Amino acid sequence: GVAAIVAQAEKDSAFEGGKPLAKIGSDFLRGSDGTGPGANRGTESTASNLIADSFQHWVTHDIQVSGDHYIGLMNAGGVRADYQAGPLTVGEAYTVQPFGNEIGYATYTGAQVRALLAQQWQPTTSRSTLMLGVSSNVEVYINQEAADALEDYWDQIKNKGVPAASLADAIAQAQAQVINAVYIDGKRLADEASVVIASNSFLLRGGDNFTVLGETTLVNTGILDRT
Fold first, then answer.
1. Which residue of 28, 91, 117, 128 has the smallest Cβ count within 10 Å?
2. Cα–Cα distance between 192 and 215 in angstroms, integer?
3. Pairing between strand 69-74 and 194-200?
4. CA 78 → CA 37, 96, 98, 131, 162, distances in Å?
């Protein structure tokens, strides 16, 4: 009896998963270091940026909330497959975003946005960098000297056994300097500006060590992020 239920569920799932959602004109890929798809979460990727653009489009056109700017963000670890050119099915969309997080948004100051972008460098964690996907209306200019210093601190902690506590002040100083400027919609972001960020509920709660995002209570729509 159980086998028959499972067989029918597999049949129904395959039918639903094969339904077309859209047609994509080109590949949108995760970051790679040459060892395989998605192997490098420390670089910007077209797949993450595409999802961030979809979040930005949604919050700009479908949600009526006041703010100076509207942007989308996506965490690299939440993108589990590449988008391939051609028809996109329900099942493929599920494979790209399989975690069942919900779409949400929250409002931050420009100063908070700069601070959360600096948290892409994570010298005390297992990966030195986790680069966010950002919507196309955002430009981020970094201080390469500070970025190199943060990479070096990660190497000292990860590979050379230097205690993280001994580098805490140096890390904080470098992170405060690593973001030179942020432009949204072609305008330089002011510290006091209000920025509405749309993303998935995992990231907006401060996931992947982006603790600044957890400083503001998100509005959770209950709509699945892949929708």
1. 91
2. 16
3. parallel
4. 14, 8, 8, 12, 31
| pLDDT tens digits for range 142-165 | 999 999 999 999 999 999 999 999
Output the pTM of the full model.
Answer: 0.94
Residue with tokens 């948004």: 105
Q: How far is CA 43 from CA 178, 218, 225, in A?
A: 16, 26, 22
Side-by-side strand order, sheet with 133-134? 133-134, 69-74, 194-200, 102-109, 219-224
Which neighbouring-strand residues pair with 106?
A: 197
- Dihedrals φ, ψ of 24, to 5°? -105, 130
- What distance lies between CA 25 and its chain's CA centroid? 22
User: Mean pLDDT throughout 170-190?
Assistant: 98
Facing residues of 74 across strands? 133
Which amino acid is residue 115, in one-letter code? Answer: A
Q: Which residue's entry shows tokens 């006091």?
A: 192
In tens, the pLDDT along 189-217 reads 999 999 999 999 999 999 999 999 999 99
